[in-house]
Design goal:
The chain has a domain of 228 residues: Rossmann fold (3-Layer(aba) Sandwich), CATH 3.40.50. The chain has 11 helices and 13 strands. The strands form 4 sheets. A 7-stranded parallel β-sheet has the order 3-2-1-4-5-6-11, sandwiched between helices. The chain has a two-stranded parallel sheet with strand order 7-10. The chain has a two-stranded parallel sheet with strand order 8-13. The longest helix has 21 residues. The chain binds UDP-4-deoxy-4-formamido-beta-L-arabinopyranose. The site of UDP-4-deoxy-4-formamido-beta-L-arabinopyranose has 18 residues, from helix 7 and strand 8.
Length: 338
């Protein structure tokens, strides 16, 4: 079964391509390489021992989409392609609304034209903002987004919900990711941040590699055990496997129209300092870090309640933060050798 993977050369997309092949699916990548590199295709070829079909196109290009749906007999779509830099979205909101919303609407329209039913959408826990209660469940009310990036995720969820409610023959799930970290254990694919990483783990690995002078911990005066923020860090391979389970859930649906939302996390929270200490322990090295001021927009703590994804979708995180940090370091070391 051919599955169109938009943004399939990206961090989560590329790891999902591996798990799709492992599960017997045939991924078809569409990626404009605006935030990924073609070297990812080399890594996929080495891991899989085969080529993966890849269209170097923008999924906002209607003609390209029509060509792909016509020529490849697509039977499902996993939609990763989106701009995702929180800070940049504040500076350039229209770029984010135009790209992230248009691509989702165009994909849904094209799916309807070609009778493609199954749609997995990459959403984010950012739609919860700072939740009033923890852990967050899928019933926890969304809060006004902290950034245009986060707002595009909430709006896309509503676009999908309303399209399905209008009885479009679409079966969809929105996966609300918590914090994806780590890399494929082969060390052949992983996170490729452009420029200075804004996310914690790629900054840690670059600091460990001597590429950054020190790690600044954004605030140590939060109401948490050690004063630093808490997140639910999920291994990217576990997250990739959740997408395979989501497709299987959609394949089991009898109804033509279906929509549901799942938190995809470990169900555990770790502080920034805990992550730094774990990285040092599992990789047997010392990191240089200092406490700095809070970062605007950061929520104090968020982690998932995962009963629904465990019981309804039959998926559970199996890898630990230690696994993620070991795999992230191996990937960083391979990057240095390139
Ligand atoms: C994690 C923690 C920082 C860097 C964002 C998006 C989310 C998703 C993942 C796209 C926070 C602290 C970080 C540093 C630090 N994005 N930190 N020093 O902000 O939880 O989530 O990225 O899909 O939607 O919102 O992730 O890794 O940036 O930060 O202390 O140099 O690490 O303050 O507490 P975040 P993050």
């Amino acid at each position: 079964m051919k599955i169109l993977v938009t943004g399939g050369a990206g961090f989560i997309g590329s790891h999902t391509v591996v798990e799709l092949v492992n599960a017997g699916y045939e991924p078809v990548i569409i990626d404009n390489f605006s935030n990924s590199e073609t070297s990812v295709l080399d890594g996929l070829r080495q891991i899989l021992g085969r080529e993966v079909i890849c269209y170097s196109e923008d999924c906002n290009n209607a003609d390209a989409l029509h060509r792909i749906f016509r020529d490849e007999q697509i039977e499902g779509v996993i939609h990763f392609a989106a701009y995702k830099a929180v800070g940049e979205s504040v500076e350039q909101p229209l770029k984010y609304y135009r790209n992230n919303l248009d691509s989702t609407m165009l994909l849904l329209e094209t799916m309807q034209q070609y009778g493609v039913r199954n749609f997995v959408f990459s959403s984010s826990c950012t739609v919860y903002g700072q939740p009033d209660q923890l852990p967050v469940t899928e019933a926890t009310p969304r809060k006004p987004a902290q950034s245009p990036y986060g707002n595009t995720k909430a709006i896309c969820e509503d676009i999908i919900r309303d399209t399905v409610a209008a009885k479009a023959p679409i079966r969809a799930v929105a996966l609300r990711y918590f914090n994806p970290i780590g890399a494929h254990p082969s060390g052949l694919i992983g996170e490729l941040p452009l420029g200075v990483p804004s996310n914690l783990v790629p900054f840690i690995t670059q600091a460990a590699a001597g590429m950054r002078e020190k790690i600044t911990i954004f605030g140590s005066d939060y109401n948490t055990p050690d004063g630093t923020c808490i997140r639910d860090y999920i291994h990217v391979v576990d997250l990739a496997r959740a997408h395979v389970q989501a497709l299987r859930l959609l394949d089991r649906q009898e109804a033509d129209s279906f929509y549901d939302i799942f938190n995809v996390g470990t169900g555990n929270g770790n502080t920034v300092l805990e992550l730094i200490k774990t990285f040092e322990e599992v990789n047997n090295l010392k990191l240089n870090y200092a406490i700095g001021p809070r970062r605007a927009g950061d929520v104090e703590q968020i982690y998932a309640q995962v009963d629904k994804v465990n019981n309804v979708m039959g998926w559970k995180a199996e890898l630990t933060a230690a696994d993620s940090l070991r795999d992230a370091w191996r990937w960083q070391q391979n990057l240095i050798k390139k």
